[in-house]
Design brief:
By secondary structure, the protein is mainly β. A seven-stranded mixed beta sheet has the order 7-6-16-10-11-12-8. Strands 1, 2, 3, 4, 5 and 13 form a six-stranded antiparallel beta sheet that branches. It has a five-stranded mixed beta sheet with strand order 9-18-17-14-15, with no helix packed on it. β17 and β18 form a beta hairpin. 15% of the residues lie in helices and 38% in strands. The protein is globular. The chain folds into two domains: 80 residues, no CATH class; 187 residues, Alpha-Beta Complex (Fumarylacetoacetate hydrolase, domain 2).
Length: 282
């Protein structure tokens, strides 16, 4: 089950939608068209706090062909947003899957710097490295838990495309924005997709990463480690680090397409932020 978040011209606030067979359906309007309870609420309330209460039933109705026309959202009127609530979420980024250290390495990033599928990020430079991997959104608070408990707290997963300007891991300074997936995937579970590989397309090149579970530290122990060092809360985003073989050099303006075949795809691109002295006094 895939849950998307975005804006449409009809509403001033973001809408929550279900993706089914390549189409989008407004959750609030599916609620209204069903005989069940109307849950309402924003993305955080409906998806995070309630852990998707009622969404499985709505998705099941879509799968059986009950697809009300009034709930359909056209892709052309849907402005994709990250499938999280940036104003209420923290974003912690783990080092790349092949980063070798005695324990998992992580950085605190800016959740408001996450952008949606197909939207541009701003770079102060012409050339950057794009690195693809997965991210998870937590459905529970995590504090000093075991690896088994850490995996149980994962609500869903999505694709993540990071951008960097050649900075070494852990170097001081701001990080460019990152693209967060086209949807939050609740099923299949994270464990079910870790044996797969990402496909990255750029210009005429096609790269295939190593298996997503080819990591110095596995996902469960990395999340458990974080829970002993960071106060993680429901709704927080944790980037699992770039997959091995999933980095590519990109010139500003070029698009990068990332896909987990059969599951989810994400497109990202970067534009150059022009230099300006308007911030100076006088």
């Amino acid at each position: 089950m895939k849950i998307a978040r975005g804006r449409i011209p009809e509403f001033a606030t973001p809408v929550t939608a279900l993706r089914c067979d390549g189409a989008l359906y407004d959750v609030a309007k599916l609620d209204a068209a069903s005989a069940g309870a109307e849950f309402g609420g924003d993305f955080f309330s409906r998806v995070i706090s309630a852990r998707g209460a009622g969404l499985s039933e709505l998705y099941g109705r879509l799968l059986t062909g009950r697809r009300p026309t009034e709930a359909r959202i056209l892709e052309t009127e849907f402005f994709p947003l990250p499938p999280c609530e940036p104003s209420r979420s923290a974003y912690v980024q783990l080092a790349s899957a092949d980063h070798r250290a005695e324990e998992p390495q992580y950085e605190h990033r800016d959740a408001r710097g996450l952008v949606g599928d197909g939207q541009p990020v701003g770079l102060r430079g012409q050339v950057a490295m794009a690195s693809a991997g997965l991210a998870v959104v937590l459905g529970e608070d995590l504090e000093a838990v075991s690896p088994v408990e850490a995996l149980r707290a994962v609500l869903g997963w999505t694709l993540l495309l990071q951008w960097s300007l050649g900075m070494e891991w852990g170097a001081p300074g701001p990080r460019p924005a990152a693209h967060l997936g086209a949807a939050l995937v609740l099923a299949p579970s994270l464990e079910a997709v870790l044996g797969k590989r990402l496909v990255i397309r750029h210009r005429e090149a096609r790269l295939v990463s190593d298996s997503l579970d080819a990591r110095v530290f596995n996902v469960a122990e990395s999340l458990a480690f974080l829970s002993h060092h960071v106060a993680l809360r429901a709704g927080d985003v944790v980037g699992l680090g770039a997959a091995r073989g999933a980095r590519i050099e990109v010139v500003a303006g070029e698009r990068v397409h990332v896909e987990l075949p059969g599951e989810l795809a994400l497109e990202g691109w970067a534009s150059t932020v022009p230099a300006s002295a308007a911030w100076r006094v006088g």
